[in-house]
Specification:
mainly alpha
Length: 65
């Protein structure tokens, strides 16, 4: 989760103009090549493996997928 926060902070600095386009690290800009999604999915998988119990899920119709 620290990596996700780091990427968000980096993206915020970039979009506010504190980081130059010439020196931007595209891997740290949120959602490039689904990098952050992959990390989140990996973390969910590890939590499930460690817990062993089914993860409850309720569909939220207010979220557009």
């Amino acid at each position: 989760m620290a990596y996700i926060k780091e990427c968000g902070t980096y993206a915020q600095k970039f979009y506010s103009g504190k980081k130059s386009e010439n020196n931007v690290d595209m891997e740290k800009i949120a959602y490039v090549n689904d990098n952050l999604y992959d990390r989140i999915c990996d973390k969910i998988g590890r939590l499930h493996k460690e817990n062993g119990e089914p993860m409850p899920y309720e569909k939220n119709d207010d979220i557009v997928r």
